[in-house]
Amino acid sequence: MEQITADSRIVHVAAAAILDKQGRVLISRRHEQAHQGGLWEFPGGKLEPGETVLAGLARELREELGIRLLRSDPLIKITHHYADRCVLLDVHRVLQFAGEPRGMEGQPLRWQLPAAMRAVEFPAADRPIITALQLPDRYLITGGDPARPTEFLQRLENALQQGLSLVQLRAHALSDFAYNRLAEAAWGLCRRYRARLLLSRPGQLLTWADGVHMTRHQLAACQERPRLSGWVGASCHDLHELRQAERLGLDYALLSPVQPTASHPGASPLGWQCFAQWVEAVNLPVYALGGLGLESLDRAKQSGAQGVAAISAWWGNQPPPKP
């Protein structure tokens, strides 16, 4: 396992993605004379010596916005090197707070949906945070029955009815023609449930698709981010591959296997400690994959994951009953 050591020169910052009931996020504008002045940012500030992240976050929200932190989840950690400094952004998604936010230091505030955020209006260090806010915490990889479209689509609809909103269409055995036909039908279902569909064949990306997912071999062969619209992600199994995904500017990665899996019985699981260490070393949202389901979601988030990706946990061993 590759050793990763902390740098004591890094400025450790606690930041908040504060959500309201409409799913909007509160952002504030930096004063013109400040570092990265004039740009929008997520509220927060530098931790004091010996202060925990949650304590620092609560203090910053009280001082900056006049609100009291009640409940939050880890979202993402970002280490960014500017020309004059290095910052570690420890970002939490604030799910509950007391009080009405106001600019206690005269800073303008704005509520904005993540989908409407423009990366150029934020400091470079904040840009992976925007992606993390736009991505859900559950990621479905389709399983069996792609050669039997009726059963396959029944399974997919059943998963979508559970609230899953990000789907990777994985059907390696199909011809390109059969894959594209299945993709069109799956896309129709996903649109009905307001979900996004990612295709697992970059060479066959259809213009209406929401993005593409690459295998580890396709990732290794890439010299630059695929010039495709929508999200681009990749499967990773070690820190080198995660760093390749980060270097290419991908939107997310899947890291596996975290736990033993029936589909890959010979693969050595990473375990949560290794998973957390590797995820902290890169600046992009990472889903935990391998032997996981909804019951693992909290553990995954505490380990730095965007959320959980799974096949069997949401696909099921039997096709769902016909309506």
Rounded to the nearest angstrom, the distance between the terminal CA atoms is: 49 Å
Highest-level CATH class of the largest domain: Alpha Beta
What is the chain-wise order of helices and strands? EEEEHEEEHEHEHEEHEHEHEHEH
Give the overall shape: globular
The major β-sheet equals:
8 strands, parallel
The value of Rg in angstroms is 20 Å
- In DSSP terms (H or I, runs of 4 or more residues), the helix count works out at 9
Question: In the CATH scheme, what's the topology name of the largest domain?
Answer: TIM Barrel
Q: Would you count the extended β strands for me?
A: 15
Kindly report the name of the CATH homologous superfamily of the largest domain: Aldolase class I
CATH architecture of the largest domain: Alpha-Beta Barrel
Observed structural traits:
TIM Barrel, disordered C terminus, 2 domains, disordered N terminus, 15 strands, seven-stranded mixed sheet, 9 helices, single chain, alpha/beta, 323 residues, globular, Nucleoside Triphosphate Pyrophosphohydrolase, eight-stranded parallel sheet
